Amino acid sequence: MQNLKLDRPLAVFDLETTGVDTDKDRIVQIAIIRVEPDGRRTTFETLVNPERSIPPEATRVHGIRDEDVRDKPTFSQIRAEVEEYLRGAVLGGFNSINFDAPLLQAELRRSESDLDLRQAKQVDAMRVFHRMERRDLTAAYRFYCDKELVGAHSALADTEATVEILDAQVGRYEEVPDTLDALHTFCNPDEGLYLDRSRKFRWDDRGEACFTFGKYSGSSLRDVCRDDRGRGYLEWMLGKDFNEEVKDVLRQALSGVFPKKQG
User: Which of 35, 130, 186, 190 is the most buried (most CB within 10 A)?
Assistant: First the structure.
């Protein structure tokens, strides 16, 4: 990489999946390129058996069919390799903060991994692109690298392109920082304001997690849990279609453990 300064490893990854539900859909292909501070690169790529049928609408996007993955490893069988590539690295991708990272976290949770991607720094080429140009991956590759993306929606092709785009973005804009920590902050300008990625809970001035929606909007989890009516509301939420990160917060609160903002 010519522009982005690496003081620790950068693991850029891309997923092809059975759908767009980050809690329930499964990975059918994963590619990871890990770039070390000295410039060395290692690549991991495989098709993955999602242990379910791939919907036709997903196949129309990435071209991967049930027969393509029938004899491929399940995610649990590749988990250790995935962990090795990601552990200790800043994560990178294209729309990875909103999609790839949460979906991969759900797969890790199902396979009983102790790796928590929510604690990792993340840089996202799409967020840089949307803040500066606002297009998609194919256009980003053409714009920043003057190349046509061949094999779009192949995880490895998308990942290779994203590595080049991230580096070119840093070289193009003075406003885009060239260190991983600063680029993480650039990609996550609201970091520290919210407890969870779906922004259902916001930190208040006391460092307490408060609801951002519904009848308890503005109230802290701790206060809501003080009476049976509030606890009933949390139990009601557990039965609804909230993501697992939110439900983990609710379960902890119902057991008397409340999140506290660090720092």
Answer: 35
Q: How many CB atoms lie within 10 A of CB 117?
A: 18
pTM for the model: 0.70
Q: Is 111:79 a contact under the CB 8 Å cutoff?
A: yes
Residue range 166-211, pLDDT digits in tens: 999 999 999 999 999 999 999 988 878 999 988 999 999 999 999 9
> Is residue 218 assigned to a domain?
yes
- For 243, the domain range is 201-255
CB burial readout 24-58, b (16+ within 10 A) else e: ebbbbbbbbbbbeeeeeeeebbbbbbbeeebeeeb
Pair (107, 210) in one structural domain: no
pLDDT (tens digit per residue) in 105-148: 999 999 999 999 988 999 999 999 988 986 789 999 999 999 99
d(Cα 232, Cα 105) in Å, to the nearest integer?
Answer: 28
Number of domain units in the chain: 2
Contact (CB, 8 A) for 89 and 113: no
Distance of CA 260 to the CA centre of its chain: 23
Residue matched to tokens 């890790």: 108
